[in-house]
Amino acid sequence: MAIFFNNFEDIFRSASASNAKKNLPFLVFFFSGWGAGLLGISHLIIFLLENHGQVTYFSAMGLILGCSPMIFGKAKAGKIAPKHAFFFAIPLAFMLFLSFNEGELAANATLEQLGGLNAGLVLWLFVASFFSSIAMLIPGVGGSLMMLTFGIYAIFIEAVATLDLLLLAILTSSMVLGILAGIKIIKKLLDSYAQVLYCAILGFIIGAVFFIFPGFPYYSGEGVLAVVLAVSFGVLAYWLSHKEGKKEA
């Protein structure tokens, strides 16, 4: 959504320690909106996914594909080198691997199945949560997807559902550290390797289309609606990003 609204760079440049005080109003409004959206729309998203999953996923695919030309424009800005193709192909291959192994990834073990907490598992939870929180900041990836990849998603859901304070302390502390580190890393990449970063983002979000693709729609009212919304959101995303690009030019 940060890519969709074309404020991806603004968020990370404003959130850096050196700019935080100067951009405090922006950060207050952004994180207030983020929190309100998270709390206010989460139940609606769950309802839509459970009852109208195909429509929801196709709408998301439309947004992703509509934003892709803008990201491609930033990825090819300047001289194209072989390394740019490499940094596009690796994230794309990673997402394709995940999409073809989604069933296996969904079978994450619970804490009870793993035999309870021990020192090794605590360390793994901390490390996996740390890198998953960094992934939250990368368009197309997301923290939940990385938790599935690391095998801690079921434990995370279990901790939230049961309000396990020890597990929540381990996971949230590492997530906070990961977000802070991720902001610094991505800002550095934007400042020094923006073209490479956008090549990688393009690979991630194109691969995300394969990951969330729910299958071809059946010829039904909901199937037709899914396609119509995918096209509509794609056109809207392209128009907004193209409009913003003209302003920047």
Describe what you observe in this structure.
The structure is a single chain. Helix content is 79%, strand content 0%. It has helices at 8-15, 17-20, 24-51, 53-75, 82-100, 102-105, 119-135, 143-150, 153-162, 165-192, 194-212, 221-248. The protein has 249 residues and is mainly alpha-helical. Helix 3 (24-51) packs across helix 4 (53-75), helix 4 runs parallel beside helix 12 and helix 7 (119-135) crosses helix 10 (165-192). The protein is built from twelve helices and no strands. The two termini are 22 Å apart.
Keywords:
single chain; 249 residues; mainly alpha; 79% helix
Label the overall shape.
Answer: globular
Low-confidence spans: pLDDT under 50, at least 5 residues?
A: none
Structural class: mainly alpha
Q: Which band does the percent of strand residues land in?
A: under 5%
| Helix/strand order | HHHHHHHHHHHH
Total DSSP helices: 12
Mean of the pLDDT scores?
76
Share of helix, binned: over 70%
How many beta-strand runs?
A: 0
Radius of gyration: 19 Å
Largest sheet: none
Short description:
The chain is mainly alpha-helical and 249 residues long. The protein contains twelve helices and no strands.
Give the SSE layout:
Blueprint: H1 8-15, H2 17-20, H3 24-51, H4 53-75, H5 82-100, H6 102-105, H7 119-135, H8 143-150, H9 153-162, H10 165-192, H11 194-212, H12 221-248
